[in-house]
Structures are given as structure tokens and as C-alpha cells.
Design brief:
4 helices, about 130 residues, alpha+beta
């Protein structure tokens, strides 16, 4: 491959990468935590934590839906697609996420459960 062809290929690759990442914040701050999208890590007072893919996807869906309520069905579609999942799978992912955030369902600081409606991320979300 000639140098000119290589340069054109690199330029096209950079342009495609720029288009794909347009509008996506690399860091999202909420409360005491930062979600690092590039490394897929949750960073908090105790350091960085890697989340299971489904738990990470639940957090991303809640961040995207903030400050509103993310309905149970919408959460299922965003995280698991159109596959049938039990309520226990969502409950498990939320338990893991709450544990990583140091949150409690009965006295929530991060994730609020709205009975029969869905879930809401309580703190303000700041994209950086």
C-alpha cells in the first residue's frame, strides 16, 4: 500500500471514529461516582470497580433516562434486548449496582424504586 493510500485509510478511520463517538460523554459524574465509558469502570470513593456487563448496561440506561423514571420494560429492552427475562434478573442486576454504589433500597441515595413504574437515578448527572 502506498503512503498516500495509507494516509487516506487513516483519515477515513479517524472520521468514522469521530462520528461514532459524537455526543457520547467519556465520563459521567453523579453523586460521589464517575462512570468512565472508555474503560467501562465505575469510580467512587473506594476506587475503581468493574461491573458485570448487564449491571453496567443497567447503570447506563438509568443515566440516559435521568432525571426521569426508567420503566421496567424499557430497562429490559435496553439491557437484554427483546429476550424474555425474569424480574429476578433485573432485581439481581439492581442489587449488584446498589452494592457497588453503597446504596440501600429502603433508604436510597442513588437508585429509587418507583413501585409499578420503574427506577430513577436520584443524583444529578453531569457529562464531562
Amino acid at each position: 500500500m502506498s503512503d498516500a493510500a495509507r494516509q487516506r485509510l487513516v483519515a477515513r478511520t479517524h472520521a468514522a471514529t469521530d462520528r461514532a463517538s459524537a455526543g457520547i460523554a467519556m465520563h459521567v459524574r453523579f453523586g460521589e461516582f464517575v462512570l468512565d465509558h472508555r474503560r467501562e469502570l465505575l469510580i467512587g470513593p473506594q476506587g475503581a470497580t468493574a461491573l458485570r456487563p448487564q449491571v453496567y448496561a443497567v447503570l447506563c440506561a438509568m443515566i440516559t433516562g435521568a432525571p426521569g423514571i426508567v420503566a421496567h420494560d424499557a430497562l429490559c429492552d435496553k439491557v437484554w434486548g427483546h429476550r424474555a427475562v425474569s424480574r429476578s434478573a433485573i432485581a439481581q442486576a439492581l442489587r449488584e449496582l446498589r452494592r457497588a454504589l453503597g446504596d440501600q433500597a429502603r433508604q436510597p441515595r442513588y437508585i429509587e424504586t418507583r413501585q409499578r413504574r420503574g427506577y430513577r437515578l436520584i443524583p444529578d448527572v453531569v457529562c464531562e
